[in-house]
Amino acid sequence: MLSQDNPKLPPPCHLICPGLISYSVAWEWQQSLVQQRRNCPELTDVLILLEHPPVYTLGQGATLDFLKFDPSQNEYELYRVERGGEVTYHCPGQLVGYPILNLRRYQQDLHWYLRQLEEVLLQVLDVYGLDGERYPGLTGVWLEGRKIAAMGIKVSRWITMHGFALNVCPDLVGFHRIVPCGISDKSVGSLAEFIPGITIDEVLPQVAAAFTKVFGVELICYSS
């Protein structure tokens, strides 16, 4: 039993790192985890860090005007999902984070939550001596004018899903087929443009460590 002089122990959060997973599988996985926690809010929070094969996703209210290809031709894998935001692109070399958190344990404030996700990635950039930025009125993280990380979330009964995508060392060509996040006047960038040779394996532990600090949790490696 904790004494009154000891601080409260940080809440546990399962860390799952499955590697390269198809978007559809990860999406169904998130939906299942969220439903479980809607039914039983006491379940432990989860942070999934992974990569996806090339895929485009649209937020629930996103317009097709930001696609530079005909979606009816099915040349590229494309999903419309529950998150907010416009179109984005996932591919290998991009580290995607899906926090499944009960915000009742933190703050029941979606703006606060988005700023916390941004802070995680700003702290990661700081590890490498890079000065990331926020832009007022926009969600995400920028580095020397290039968008380095995008975010889109869905919250149901204060349980979160979807999350963030950090461009570590992806092939950025896929972004040329869209107007990323509906922002036409700012380009997309990657950490590899500033730190040649950087890898997902190197950055993933830094993201986990920053998440631990920003959200005040204890990450526990978990095999799904």
From TrEMBL:
The record marks K147 as: Lowers pKa of active site Cys. In the reaction, the free carboxyl group of octanoic acid is attached via an amide linkage to the epsilon-amino group of a specific lysine residue of lipoyl domains of lipoate-dependent enzymes. Pathway: Protein modification; protein lipoylation via endogenous pathway; protein N(6)-(lipoyl)lysine from octanoyl-[acyl-carrier-protein]: step 1/2. This is Octanoyltransferase. Its main location: cytoplasm. The keyword Transferase applies. Substrate binds at R83, G84, G85, E86, V87, T88, Y89, H90, A150, M151, G152, G163, F164, A165. Pfam families: LplA-B_cat. InterPro entries: aa-tRNA-synth_II/BPL/LPL, BPL_LPL_catalytic, Octanoyltransferase, Octanoyltransferase_CS. PROSITE patterns: BPL_LPL_CATALYTIC, LIPB. It comes from Okeania hirsuta. NCBIfam families: lipB, PRK14345.1. GO terms for molecular function: lipoyl(octanoyl) transferase activity. The active site is at C181 (acyl-thioester intermediate). Residues 41-219 form the BPL/LPL catalytic domain. Keywords: Acyltransferase, Cytoplasm, Transferase. It is found in: Cytoplasm. Its EC number is 2.3.1.181. It catalyses: octanoyl-[ACP] + L-lysyl-[protein] = N(6)-octanoyl-L-lysyl-[protein] + holo-[ACP] + H(+). It is an enzyme of class 2 (transferase). Belongs to the LipB family. One of its GO terms (cellular component) is cytoplasm. GO terms for biological process: protein lipoylation. Catalyzes the transfer of endogenously produced octanoic acid from octanoyl-acyl-carrier-protein onto the lipoyl domains of lipoate-dependent enzymes. Lipoyl-ACP can also act as a substrate although octanoyl-ACP is likely to be the physiological substrate.
